[in-house]
Amino acid sequence: MALLDVRDLKTYFKTDDGIVKAVDGVTFSIEKGRTLGIVGESGSGKSVTCLTIMGLNAKRNTITTGEALFKEQDLLGMGMRRLRQIRGNDIAMIFQDPMTSLNPVHKIGNQLTEAVLLHQDVTKKQARARALELLKAVGIPRAERRVDDYPHQFSGGMRQRVMIAMALINDPDLLIADEPTTALDVTTQAQILNLMNKLQEEFGSAIIIITHDLGVVAETADDVLVMYAAEVVEQGPVNQIFSRPHMPYTWGLLGSLPRLDAETERLVQITGQPPSLLRPPSGCRFHPRCPYVMDVCKQTDPPLKPVTGDIDHYAACHLDEETKDREATKLLAGMVAEARTG
Ligand code: SF4
């Protein structure tokens, strides 16, 4: 059974200029112990999807519909008190900037201890022991001493580790990580992703990792959800998305992965800008930027359809199967050749 089952989720924001459809009919599920990567450019709706699930978008100007069943209870219809109990206990979040979760004026040991005391019936001494245990688990050197340091006394990578400790301290069933490594250098990024993989094996949580970078998805995820302009355009197991990507936007994301030998050189760039969600393009929302656009694309939004021959792999695109397979093969062959000759 799915740990989290999101069905036809819509998040619309009322603005003076009209309705912004930030999430427009997103459906996915995640099971315990699995990692789902939600990938897309800025403004694709990936972060808003998760904030809505967590009840962090529940403002007066927001219209939310659909379902987000966590252990069969709908998070969307839940009262704030119950949601607060679930947040930080059953579901935890890691943000790009650790300072959104860490209080700069309190020692990290005290913050971790407080987080335990808030959700668990333990003594202060036991809570502090748990704090120390987690700091060691996330690889903070000399944790016994550093537990009494303030957040600003840690480097960016170490702060991110502390935030992971904070997120895992109550042994959550689901961890949502929003661009957890974007602000970090490449080496630290790799260390943090390895750490998350290792901790997942140890703690068995499900993880949703939100990122603009398919490289991060390749390192961490079992399944992928590709979002474009508030909609899901492709989803499936990571090996199928990487071996048989089935629509041009995913091709663009794959083609823009950094080459193995040069961080800055890219094979293919997606040209143009993501559309306004106030007035998204008609038909396929990717059509103004798509090199394969046809007349039908401008009029009809392609539905997510199963990819023939694959299991649990869906894509939304009007191109015929033969063209999709041919172009995907060409792209992947080009990436391999680039990697070899680069
Ligand atoms: Fe491109 Fe048309 Fe496919 Fe959209 S439906 S991705 S515009 S080919």
Description:
Helix content is 36%, strand content 21%. Among the domains are: 104-165, no CATH class; 239-341, no CATH class. By secondary structure, the protein is an alpha/beta fold. Strands 6-7-8-3-9-10-12-11 form an eight-stranded mixed beta sheet, sandwiched between helices. The protein has helices at 46-53, 80-86, 108-119, 124-137, 143-146, 156-168, 186-203, 214-220, 238-243, 248-255, 295-299, 321-341; strands at residues 4-15, 18-30, 35-39, 62-70, 73-74, 91-94, 174-178, 206-211, 223-228, 231-237, 305-306, 314-315. The termini are far apart. Helix 3 crosses helix 4, helix 4 (124-137) packs across helix 6 (156-168) and helix 6 (156-168) runs parallel beside helix 7 (186-203). Mean pLDDT is 89; it is low at 261-266. A hairpin with a 2-residue loop joins strand 9 (223-228) and strand 10 (231-237). The longest helix is centred in the last third of the chain and has 21 residues, at 321-341. It contains twelve helices and twelve strands. The chain is globular, with a radius of gyration of 21 Å. Residues 247-248, 284, 286-287, 290, 292-294, 297, 302, 317-319 line the site of iron/sulfur cluster.
